[in-house]
Amino acid sequence: MTARRTLRSAAAIVVVAATVLLLGVAPTPAPIPDDPADPVRASEYWLDGARIREAWQTTRGKGVTIAVIDTGIGKVPSVFGDAVVGGTDVSGSGTPDGRTPLGAVDGNHGSWVASLAAGRGAPDGTGMIGVAPEANLLSISVGFSAAAAVPFTEQVAKGMRWAVDNGADIINLSFTTNTLDWDKSWDDAFLYAFEHDVVVVVAAGNRGSGTNIIGAPATIPGVLTVGGVDQTGMASIEASTQGITIGISAPSEGLIGVSADGTVVPWRGTSGAAPIVAGVAALIRSAHPDIKAIDVINRIIKTAIPVPDAVKPQDPLYGYGLVDAAAAISANLPAVSENPMGDLAEWIRVFRRAETEPQPVPTVTPVAVPPLPAPDAPTEAGSPLLPSADSLRYGTLPLIALTVPGILVALGVTAAARRIRSARISVRHTPDSEE
Length: 435
Known about the structure:
Blueprint (H helix, E strand, L loop, with lengths): L2 H21 L15 H5 L2 H4 L2 H4 L9 E6 L6 H4 L3 E6 L19 H10 L17 E6 L10 H14 L4 E4 L11 H11 L3 E5 L20 E6 L16 E6 L3 E4 L5 E4 L2 H18 L5 H10 L22 H6 L13 H8 L37 H41 L6
Parallel strand pairs: 1-3, 1-4, 2-3, 4-5, 5-6, 6-7
Antiparallel strand pairs: 8-9
């Protein structure tokens, strides 16, 4: 158990004990200001659909810190007044507190995400309220643009470590890289979070923005990847994607968020589904101060609302089902010994083999090769006009041996032919001895 978790648990125990001693009953949270007639509050359909209002009867996330690694959480007093307890900039372009929105296009993204996770809402029960309205926030600003002063992979790795070192219980990452693999620097950064008992919640990505299948960091073992559904609980076509690492689903369509200037705007995407789940994780950690990160994840996926016709147990569109905040808090589940979403350390051991200890070099026994025979001693060079021993041996002598018999045979044949011709002439010219 980390030091911050020990302190949080001790504080919770003191509060509970004091309440029991004074009242003789278990504490019940005071009613939260909530005006269902307010059009903004009424549009937050996920508060009932994911049974978040019911979970508020037990906790609102007090004592838990959610780190939002995004484009910065704007300074909107009515929504983030006392919620943001710290921040930093890792982009090289923001302000030291991480509260200055970064990016001409995405500048409000971080504020939208934070408002869904832990927006405070107005004291009269109107205006937007987050899933864990009493949780704390850390604002870690990053630059999504390719022109950022610091490489994006380096920003994320640095942001993860800063979040852990500054008390984050949950880290929300509402972005994707559109690639299955990730930079090696993320191995250590995400391991650092897991080893410090931090829940990491990641958006699955959206088809509407070109993500057909999930990409890193949603592919990193151990993170809780969130897919998106519409208002009816069906997988979103444009505002979500698919992949075998999706663990849970939450609303990603018809969402609202508070911009950095305080304006409430509609938006959609798993960038919004992820902070809803991060808020649920905060409710769980607040209700169960001693719970480990792996058990938070296990509660969320094991108590999910099943989706008809979805692949069991883990569907590439819905994961284990739709998030159910009330069930995740109240369920009686045994502790687990492993992260149900995978083991990053084991993945590194298997797939980063190049980083392991070098294998021993096999020894080779040398083979003895007998020496070649000594070459013939060189002879003195003679005149090219005089025959050499080799020319006599391989040229002149064989030529004589073949030529002389041939000449003798030819002479013998010629002599024989002359004798025959002479004999014929003699016979032709000899006179008869008788008349």
